[in-house]
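Internal QA ticket QA-208
Title: Verify multi-chain structure generation after dependency bump
Assignee: T.L.

Test input:
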Amino acid sequence: MARRLCRRRPGLAQRLAVSMKIAISGKGGVGKTLLSSLLSKSFAAAGFSVLAIDADPDANLAASLGFPDPASITPVSEMADLIEERTGARPGQSGSFIRLNPRVDDLPERLAVKHDGIRLMVMGRIKRGGTGCYCAEGVLLQALLSHLLLQRNEAVILDMEAGIEHLARGTARAVDRLIIVVEPGRRSLETALRVRELASDIGVTRLSVVANKVRHQAERDFICQNLPGLEVIGFIPYDPALIEADLAARPLDDASPLVSAAVNEIFQKLTSGEEGKK
Amino acid sequence: MARRLCRRRPGLAQRLAVSMKIAISGKGGVGKTLLSSLLSKSFAAAGFSVLAIDADPDANLAASLGFPDPASITPVSEMADLIEERTGARPGQSGSFIRLNPRVDDLPERLAVKHDGIRLMVMGRIKRGGTGCYCAEGVLLQALLSHLLLQRNEAVILDMEAGIEHLARGTARAVDRLIIVVEPGRRSLETALRVRELASDIGVTRLSVVANKVRHQAERDFICQNLPGLEVIGFIPYDPALIEADLAARPLDDASPLVSAAVNEIFQKLTSGEEGKK
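Actual output:
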């Protein structure tokens, strides 16, 4: 029982009567997907209806969440027929007309996959390139993301890249919290400051930092000192047990009691003080 | 002396009379930039004229190479006037005409910055987004990258993202070796297999793997077993001394004798057996 990620607290979601929309960003490799999957499980365990969104083409949130056969999930960006039907252009097609406000309201139900009480949508990779403007997928993904953030009344956990520009201005206001994950390393702190700028550009105001792979107090101090004005809401310890669990294909959510306790504390901070919110 | 990254071997570059063009890819956070900067230094120490290219917007190769004031270097993608002059469209402008073969041959001399015998170009971030097709920067960056790979007779070290699609088909053949960096972690191996597919699509045939942050034999075995058909040309050990050096803003190239020895071995493998090549 002590190894559970968090105690099941039936009715917390109902008692709070809130939806929480959390976007998780940061430099590649800092642990965005780890935090996204563990937080998704915390929210589900507390009774929230959880929609996890994998918007980082370099990640595999399905695998981290323990979905069986993650490779069988087709990312939205690869559904060429659907993209053409909704935008008027096939992915990778350039020069043609693209419908900028495609209809997406029916897509979440059609496209989400479910496992262990968590629903998941995988957005996929937008191909970029030189000679063509690969925008049909981009238009559909952005419309879908906007819909999910603006319309869904549930806990939405969005695992995304450091480039957060695909949160459109209107959408960004729907995000309750942007968590920037960092690790002890200057590059990840630089990325955090860049994400803060991008966030401010598009109107996201509630930013928090989670520091991952932290080994000792000097690293904690270093991170806090180098992110002035940003609130660090949690420190997740470096624990090789997570690497071992990953290599052995064992679930990460009970691989490390230390990591689980740290994520549980972050979950508590995120959900406490939310009562006043609609 | 034992702590030098590699022994200076004057004339190796001349003796080999080769140019080497190495692209370094892999999942975010695996250590592409570390390997790019240490290899750049190895090539420079051996007498090669080195051009390092930062094509990963999530990285900071300038800082890793010890360039003073990396923030003062303007990435090519942010040179709006230059982009407009060469492509006919400003960055972020959509719907307008874009010249698909912009002239770039004069740009390397104009835009590269030099420090410690290494020349560096920072490509920058291509903005993606929903409603506009942000392609002017993309067109210029791809033309520039093609030029650098096809025309320059020197050691080119290209630090890039896992999405290697901006290596156009013709350019890809100019790359002598694509190194995929992995770490002990399933996601990084999945990314490696995806990069291999992309590489095959665009005609890159010489692929090698470097495994970073390796702690013990079981991790080495795991990596080899899970990358069938891919040659692992080096294992770089996990050494917290690198984190300490990074946080203290000390140069990484003499922070860890173990890491330096491993990179030196990789450099030897890359340059040996190249005599027969033009």
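Spot checks passed. The beta strands of chain B are 21-26, 50-55, 113-115, 118-122, 155-160, 177-182, 207-214, 231-237.
Status: verified.
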